[in-house]
Specification:
By secondary structure, the protein is α+β, with helices and mostly antiparallel strands. It is 33% helix and 18% strand. It is built from twelve helices and twelve strands. The strands form three sheets. Strands 2, 4, 8, 9 and 10 form a five-stranded antiparallel sheet that branches. The protein has a five-stranded antiparallel sheet with strand order 5-6-7-11-12. Strand 6 and strand 7 form a beta hairpin. The relative contact order is 0.15.
């Protein structure tokens, strides 16, 4: 073939290809589009994982949590030490979602606020009432310490072999095999201490923050668009009290909504995890609209404010303790407010650095001696 013929053939081929490409393209197959979307979402979910606070390899199996009885739990601590969950005794396998479960509507709210895996949503448990008097208290680090201890103890307990006692008609060999299998199950079930575990711990141990207390008030300056909100949290029997004072920028429509529904408002916090610390992104308000015909539709029955960065945020707290003579409600009134926006709390390091283990607590705890019985008894009456 001559050079001219080769060039002619090449031109014809290029013209044909160009004609094909210039034709109207077929519409995208919806099934293919769906698969593409799912693939993108899957890749996004893989990339968006919770940051690890302590790798599971650095967390040893539990040896002593079940030995922490009521006396040790309450000894020399402002709040009781986290109690071991009964579900962890012989449960196989332990499941995070069942043991440290999120409050109702937690995942719905988190999705509506478009939070990522390393943003922590704290709302507490609806109507939760516990013996430990713990509240969502950001005026000190006790709340963070408690959640940190609980999270690490939980993972340690997951690793510990869960073996029921040897049965009457069970052979020793079979019993030993059960022990080996339980040890292997513990290794298989263990998880990292990540932001999700911390988020579950922070929510599962405290009640939600409501504005239905008579001491809760607000003031609004329409000209400056500034709203000041005072709210109080109280534990069962008012053994612990947290008072908060909040200043936010609020346009009239937002302020009116909050004011008209003030008695049923609830308060939530959004925190960002970074380098094993938490930082305050902002607060938000939410409430449930009653009488809504579409009760199954969370979007229509829920009011959810945007996340608001406070202009000022102050808190103070008090708790009853065995060594205190004052009542928490009386004591909190005598204390100054603490500025939360510049608080050292945000430097608190979650992880092993501030972990109080059951073993350490048992070493510090001195069990009181039982009173000795008198050698002689004085009897009343005749004879």
């Amino acid at each position: 073939m001559t050079t001219k013929l080769k060039c002619l053939s090449l031109c014809i081929l290029l013209i044909g290809l160009n004609a094909c490409s210039s034709q109207k393209q077929p519409e995208n197959d919806s099934a293919v589009e769906g698969q593409t979307t799912e693939s993108k979402e899957a890749l996004q979910n893989v990339a968006e994982t919770s940051a690890v606070i302590v790798p599971k390899a650095q967390i040893s199996p539990d040896q002593s949590w079940e030995k922490i009885d009521e006396d040790v739990i309450s000894s020399n601590l402002i709040y009781f030490y986290p109690e071991k969950m009964k579900s962890l005794n012989y449960k196989e396998p332990s499941k995070l979602a069942d043991d440290l479960f999120f409050p109702a509507n937690h995942e719905f709210i988190k999705k509506q606020l478009h939070l990522n895996k390393n943003q922590v949503l704290v709302i507490g448990m609806d109507g939760y009432s516990s013996y430990n008097n713990l509240l969502i208290d950001l005026s000190n680090d006790e709340y963070f310490k408690y959640a940190n201890n609980l999270a690490i103890n939980y993972i340690r307990a997951m690793q510990a072999p869960k073996v029921e006692p040897k049965q009457e008609f069970e052979k020793t060999q079979d019993y030993e095999e059960r022990i080996k299998q339980a040890q292997q199950n513990g290794k298989n079930n263990v998880i990292d201490y990540d932001v999700e575990v911390l988020e579950r711990a922070l929510n599962s141990i405290v009640p939600d923050i409501t504005a239905d207390d008579s001491d809760n008030t607000y003031q609004y300056d329409a000209d400056q668009e500034l709203m000041t909100i005072h709210f109080k949290q109280k534990s069962r029997y008012s053994s612990a009290v947290v008072k908060s004072e909040l200043l936010i920028k609020a346009q009239p429509d937002l302020a009116k909504t909050l004011a008209e529904n003030f008695s049923r408002l609830k308060v939530g916090y959004v925190l960002t995890a970074k380098n094993n610390t938490l930082n305050l992104d902002g607060i938000f308000f939410y409430f449930i609209r009653y009488g809504n015909p579409d009760r199954q539709n969370n979007t229509s029955r829920f009011y959810l404010s945007p996340i608001i960065k406070p202009l000022a945020f102050k808190q103070k707290s008090a708790v009853n303790a065995s060594w205190k003579t004052s009542d928490a409600i009386e004591e909190v009134e005598t204390l100054p407010f603490k500025d939360l926006l510049t608080s050292p709390l945000w430097q608190f390091k979650f992880g092993l650095e501030h972990y109080l283990s059951p073993e350490t607590l048992l070493q510090k705890y001195v069990k009181p001696e039982a009173p000795k019985e008198p050698e002689t008894f004085d009897y009343l009456g005749d004879g």
